[in-house]
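INFO batch 0412 | record 1 of 1 | parsing
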Amino acid sequence: MKSRLWSCLCSGLMGVACLLPGRFAVAETKQSDNVQVLGRGPIHEAFAQPLPSGDPKALATAPQPPPEPPQEQPPAQKPEGDSVQWVPGYWQWDDVSGKFIWVTGVWREPPPKRKWVPGAYRPTDKGYQWSPGYWAPQGQDGLNYLPPPPASVDEGPNAAAPDDTANWVPGCWIWREEHYVWRPGYWLTCRPGWVWQPAHYVYSPAGCLFVAGYWDYPLEARGVLFAPVCFSVCPAVWTPSICVGIGCLPGALFVRTGCCSYFYGDYFGASFVACGFTPWLSVSIGRGGCCDPLWGYYRGYYAGLGVSYASNLRTLYADRHAGRAARPPHSLHQQHAVLKQHGQSATGAESLTVLRPLSESAPKDRRLVELSQQERDRQNRRATRLHQAATQRVRSEHELITKHEGTSLHTSPRHVDVQVPRSQHTSHQGGQELSSSAVRKLETQQQYSVPRSLPRMEVQHQLPTQQSVFRSQPSFQQSHRATPSFRSGGGKPHRK
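INFO prediction complete | emitting tokens
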């Protein structure tokens, strides 16, 4: 029964591995005794990042400053393609072990027309708080800090979804001139091969950074995800070689309250629930109950294929939580023992192979190629510039806070100059490179016709990338009359 269950799940994300039975051995995946490769831990923010939820000021803090980072060298192989870039790693505080772990860098195909703004720790009166990184528009110069937006008034859809593949994208406050206006939510049908990351805000004590919605790739096409590690003694130079198996993520992916990253591995059980860990398929964002963007994509994608992906995956999580199904191993040694116990068949082994060597971790429709010295130097230079941008970001935010201390810092936008290296101008999809014009066409293309029986909202100040969706009027209760809202029939948004 469980074999058939996982076989159904594996028809999706597992399909990227295409590995034969017997190829799940971990003999090649040895590391120094000084390094513990983690079978569970955080996923690099640049690879995948959940939507912020809860109080943005309640982000986790570290009680001590992070150590000096190691000199991280990219591995000798990378996914083919000139636009693939190395995004360096960073320290993340682990409150379970009471120490910092190193979130190893990743090979990443950037989202179309996006560049990575790295995160950094900043001192606060409660410790050291992490300001998360994010994918900013390619053409954006510097960082624009806005006053904190009002609380979301999105309450979910008040009209039925147009089809089984559609997902609700929550409404969002948008800064216009000297005030915020409310942009309502909308239904978005699944576009195979593209994941929609909704608009959101990245919080900082200096203000909030608005991240407009954008298209990204499915997990299996984003690049190579390396496993985080724990150092006994931080090395001077660090080169990763062990990756997280993308095929295991559907059955072991979590988000955590107060954290800006996904977590993979064995976070099943009541103790982890008490610590704020929630399976990606159970995430409910805001009062409207918006689902996780990644979960929405894969649920909609397989619903369009007629596969019972959602119900089967929920069964697997319930069985793992209750101890009826084998949970992912925590280390390379445990993984080797678990695979010997449960067999080496591709169906069973994929769900339990959390860690695998780089040679078996090529993204979908790409092969790994050797890194030339010229390319290595280029990637190292770019990584250095990203580290400099993170330092500059912290310094600029500190100066901004100090300069406006005791004044109305959060009443008007503030701009700071942070030099972030740009990404390549091409994007990869299905083994082909997409030009900028092709990306623009994808962003603005109509996905389906709006049913005549459902009302259409005429929204002012809409972002240009939202032309391909159907908007539904938010439903407001009596207590929300004082909050900004839209009225049906094309009324203007109320201001706040």
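INFO post-check: Residues 373-403 form the longest helix (31 residues).
INFO record closed
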